[in-house]
From TrEMBL:
InterPro entries: Leu-rich_rpt, Leu-rich_rpt_typical-subtyp, LRR_dom_sf, SLRP. SUPFAM superfamilies: L domain-like (SSF52058). PROSITE patterns: LRR. Gene3D superfamilies: Ribonuclease Inhibitor. PANTHER family: AGAP008170-PA, INSULIN-LIKE GROWTH FACTOR-BINDING PROTEIN COMPLEX ACID LABILE SUBUNIT. This is LRRCT domain-containing protein. Pfam families: LRR_8 (PF13855). Keywords: Glycoprotein, Leucine-rich repeat, Membrane, Repeat, Signal, Transmembrane, Transmembrane helix. Signal peptide: none annotated.
Length: 995
């Protein structure tokens, strides 16, 4: 850049020696455009932002080696036009990205000299016409991306010269026809995407020039009503015609190379079969026999999903001898005509779900000996004929779910010797005959959930030695009798949830020695004594939540596993007792569970916990006692839980926490005491919790924090104190929390805040809904890592200009619902990463958003303006576009903003981030969680906040844009200084000449 100006300066000095030329010098200088001042080199990539081209412009720079540049990327630009020869100085360019840049015209020879360019991306622009010779000279181009423009016309010679083009993307445009010459000059085109246009008719000439090259054609999401498959290139391998309006397929030609044909989401009612091809291929040959026609002989997958097919004719699939996958789901098929699948003997997957079949007949699937998956879900099947699946000797998955089956007999599944998944859920089954499943010797997953079984019947599962998972939830089971699970010697998971079981005998689970996961949730068991633990020696997970348990039964686990904690006691790792009627926990309740890892006891009625209640749970890591009636936490209550990492005590009535309650919980990582009645906490309340990462004290009655309350929590990252009665946090209570990243003080009574010293890692600070009326210039001075600051709903009337000076990482500032009457733009002078600024519901009258944006590294900022007293017309208009849920996304022309008085807010200096020049603003609604900050789920919010902000406003090549050289602004200033110096010299020459 500097060398470029040096050469210009040398030229001027030469002209200056000839006094009569000084006027010409001024004209030369004023007409000299340096487009490259907005471009920077990153490795071998050339990245340009906020560029505008005019006729005659040439992209140029002397500060880089143009021959080394392999890629050029335009970002946040408003190009409108690509002039002739604009890239002529970059002869070795291989990739060119001009996406979302408002481009609407490409001039002839715009790509001249780009003979080695291989990839050209022009998506998301405003192109309407591709004129003849538009891409002439791009002889090495292999990929042309023109998606998401407004292209209506492609002239016949538009692609002239693209002899090596392999991939052409014209999807999501407005094309309804193509000139027959369009593809004449792309003889090597392999893949063509025309998805999402407006084609209604595909002419026979449209693809005639691609008969030997095209492999992949996508015409999905158009408006095609009728299709003649004979018009497509014989070389085609993949044809996608999904989501059109096709009613009839009028011809099945010789498509020897097609292996995937997608016709889903159309209105197809009729597919012409081989016996009807006579009138199509031999219309004038009366009486002559039909020649042998091989229809789609290499077709592997045919998708006719979501159409209006009502029946399958006997020779429907004639000629498709290699078909492996056939998708016919979501049609109107009511019956399968015998012989429908005779010609597809190689079929492996058949999808007939969501049709109107009422029965499965013995002849329906004759000949499908290689079928591995049969999907018949969501029909109206009431009857299964005897041996209806007998020919499916290779079947592995059979799905009969969501039908109207009532009874199951042993003859229904004969011949299915390899089936390993059987889905029978969501039927009306109320009876299983003995030995129903005797033929299914290979079955390992059986789903009978959501039926009407009142009982199981002895020996129903006798011949299922390999079943590992049995699902019986949501039936009408009230009792399980002895022998019901005979034969299930391999079962690992048994789901009996959501039934009416009131009793389990000691012999209920005899024979299920490998059972690890037993789910008894939402039944009517009154006691744990009804669970036969003696026969469940391998159990690792027991869910008995939502029953009627009032007590655990003294020593229920020790009586089962032995007081010496035998090998059997090591199994149970997860015990769920939540949502029962338990009122107390006794010392011996959990004896025998020394290896329990998770214990869920939330939503009971627990009031009392005896001393040493959890002492035997030496391996416990997760304990949930939330939503009970506990009022006091004592040291001896939870003593011995040395491995505990997560303790949940929220939503009790806790008012008293002893000074050393948690002192022995050295492994504790997360502690939730929210929604209780705690008013005071002693300085030693959390002593010993040195590994604590998250602490939630929200929604209590705390009005004061002891100065040293958190001093022994070096790893604390999340601290929630919202919805308390804190009025004073000026005593240094947060000092020492060097790892803290989120601090939530929302909805307290804070009037004054001191410096937040020691919070060197804090990146999210919520101070909303307090009584803060003034902030000192040093309030946030030490919070250099802060990303999000919430100050809404306070009484702030003014802000010192230096209040955010050290907060260079701030991305989100919420100042809404205060009493601000004025706000200096320079308040945000150091906020280079600002993305969200909420100013709504104040008393502001005028502010310059463009000046704020000039301070930021970003080219757009999301504002909320509504609810103020704006006296500027444009701000009043913007205020109408912002709401409590939506931001206004504002982008400013930086060049204009530096040279104009911004108080006028002229529309040429504020434009939308959209490429549409007629739209001034684009509402933006962020993820609700970004401003939540109310519970532990926010840990994922604050840790990725900057990344989320960046991704919301950067496109796919943003990783390169972030690498821009930092000296760009300095170069612009240097250019300006040089211009001033030149004009001064010229002025002095003029004065001398006049004298």
């Amino acid at each position: 850049m500097i060398s470029s100006w040096y050469k210009t300066f040398k030229q001027i000095l030469h002209f200056m020696e000839q006094k009569e030329n000084f006027v010409a010098i001024i004209i030369l200088l004023l007409g000299h455009e340096v487009i490259s001042q907005d471009c920077n080199q990153v490795d071998r990539n050339f990245i340009c932002e906020s560029v505008e081209f005019k006729t005659g412009d040439v992209l140029d720079t002397t500060s880089i080696n143009k021959l080394a540049i392999k890629s050029i990327i335009f970002e946040n630009s408003n190009l409108n036009i690509l002039p002739r020869n604009v890239f002529s100085k970059f002869p070795n360019l291989q990739q060119l990205y001009i996406n979302n840049s408002g481009l609407n015209q490409i001039m002839f020879d715009a790509f001249s000299n780009l003979t080695v360019l291989e990839e050209l991306y022009l998506e998301q622009n405003s192109l309407t016409t591709l004129e003849n010779n538009t891409f002439f000279g791009l002889e090495s181009l292999k990929l042309l991306q023109l998606s998401e423009n407004e292209i209506e016309t492609v002239e016949g010679d538009a692609f002239l010269g693209l002899i090596d083009l392999r991939l052409l993307l014209l999807d999501r445009n407005k094309l309804n026809t193509l000139d027959p010459r369009t593809f004449t000059f792309v003889p090597n085109l392999k893949s063509l995407n025309l998805l999402g246009n407006s084609f209604e008719v595909i002419s026979s000439e449209m693809f005639s020039k691609l008969n030997n090259s095209l492999l992949n054609l996508n015409l999905a999401f158009n408006k095609i009503t009728k299709i003649d498959l004979s018009i497509f290139p014989s070389s085609l391998q993949v044809l996608d015609l999904a989501s059109n309006e096709i009613v009839t397929v009028t011809s099945w030609p010789s498509m020897k190379n097609v292996f995937y044909l997608n016709l889903q989401g159309n209105h197809i009612r009729v597919v012409v079969t081989i016996t009807e091809i006579f009138s199509i291929f031999q219309p004038f040959n009366s009486g002559a026999p039909i020649q042998s026609i091989h229809l789609a002989e290499n077709l592997i997958e045919l998708n006719l999903e979501n159409n209006y097919l009502a029946e399958l004719k006997g020779d429907f699939f004639n000629g498709m001898s290699k078909l492996r996958v056939l998708k016919l789901q979501s049609n109107s098929i009511t019956d399968i005509i015998p012989g429908s699948f005779t010609h597809v003997s190689a079929l492996e997957q058949l999808y007939l779900s969501n049709n109107s079949l009422t029965q499965v007949k013995q002849t329906d699937f004759t000949g499908l000996s290689k079928l591995s998956q049969l999907h018949l879900a969501k029909n109206k099947i009431k009857n299964l004929s005897a041996s209806c699946f007998k020919d499916l000797e290779s079947l592995l998955v059979l799905d009969l779910s969501e039908n109207e089956l009532v009874r199951l007999k042993d003859t229904h599944f004969s011949g299915l010797i390899k089936v390993n998944h059987l889905h029978l859920q969501n039927n009306h089954i109320y009876e299983i005959r003995p030995r129903t499943f005797r033929a299914l010797r290979a079955l390992f997953r059986l789903d009978l959930s959501h039926n009407r079984l009142p009982d199981l019947g002895k020996d129903s599962f006798m011949f299922l030695p390999l079943v590992t998972e049995l699902n019986l939830e949501y039936n009408n089971l009230s009792q399980i009798t002895d022998g019901d699970f005979n034969g299930l010697s391999s079962v690992i998971s048994l789901n009996l949830a959501n039934n009416r079981i009131i009793h389990l005998s000691e012999q209920t689970f005899v024979g299920t020695k490998k059972l690890k996961n037993l789910i008894l949730r939402n039944n009517e068991l009154p006691s744990l004594a009804d669970v036969p633990f003696k026969t469940l020696s391998s159990l690792t997970k027991l869910d008995i939540s939502e029953n009627h348990l009032t007590s655990l039964g003294q020593g229920i686990f020790s009586n089962t596993y032995g007081t010496n904690l035998t090998k059997s006691s090591s199994g149970l790792a997860n015990l769920n007792l939540s949502n029962n009627l338990l009122t107390s926990i006794q010392e011996i309740d959990f004896l025998g569970l020394s290896n329990l890892i998770e214990l869920h006891m939330q939503s009971n009625r627990i009031q009392r916990m005896d001393k040493g209640s959890f002492t035997s749970l030496q391996s416990l890591k997760h304990l949930d006692l939330s939503n009970n009636l506990i009022t006091t936490i004592k040291t001896e209550t939870i003593a011995g839980l040395t491995s505990l990492t997560n303790l949940y005590l929220q939503s009790n009535g806790i008012s008293n926490v002893s000074s050393d309650a948690f002192q022995n919980l050295g492994s504790l990582v997360m502690l939730d005491l929210s929604n209780n009645s705690i008013a005071k906490l002693s300085e030693s309340a959390f002593s010993g919790c040195t590994k604590l990462v998250g602490l939630d004290l929200s929604t209590n009655l705390i009005d004061d924090l002891q100065p040293k309350l958190f001093q022994n929590l070096p790893q604390l990252t999340l601290l929630h104190l919202q919805n308390n009665f804190l009025s004073n946090i000026t005593n240094g209570c947060f000092e020492g929390l060097s790892s803290l990243q989120l601090l939530n003080l929302t909805d307290n009574a804070i009037e004054e805040i001191s410096d937040f010293k020691g919070l060197s890692s804090l990146n999210s600070l919520y101070l909303r809904k307090n009584r803060i009326h003034k902030l000192s210039p040093t309030s946030f001075r030490d919070l250099e890592e802060l990303v999000l600051l919430g100050l809404s709903s306070n009484d702030i009337k003014s802000l010192d200009e230096s209040i955010f000076y050290n907060l260079t990482n701030l991305a989100d500032i919420d100042l809404s619902h205060n009493h601000l009457t004025e706000l200096e733009e320079s308040t945000f002078a150091t906020q280079k990463n600002l993305v969200f600024l909420d100013l709504h519901s104040n008393q502001l009258t005028c502010i310059d958003p463009c000046e704020i944006i000039t301070y930021s590294h970003h080219y757009t900022i999301n504002f909320k303006f509504h609810g103020n007293l704006w006296n500027c017309t444009l701000l009043r208009e913007m205020a109408r576009d912002s709401t409590d849920d939506f931001y206004v996304n504002v982008r400013c022309d930086r060049k204009a903003s530096k040279t104009k008085a911004m108080r006028d807010f002229s529309t040429d200096t504020i434009v939308s981030s959209s490429s549409n020049q007629n739209a001034n603003f684009r509402p933006f609604k962020p993820d609700k969680d970004v401003h939540n900050g109310n519970n532990f789920s926010d840990s994922t919010v604050f840790s990725q906040l900057l990344r989320d902000f960046e991704e919301a406003h950067q496109r796919r090549y943003s990783d390169l844009v972030r690498l821009f050289n930092n000296f760009k602004q300095e170069i612009v200033i240097l250019n300006a200084i040089i211009i001033v110096i030149i004009f001064v010299i010229l002025f002095l020459i003029c004065v001398r000449h006049v004298k």
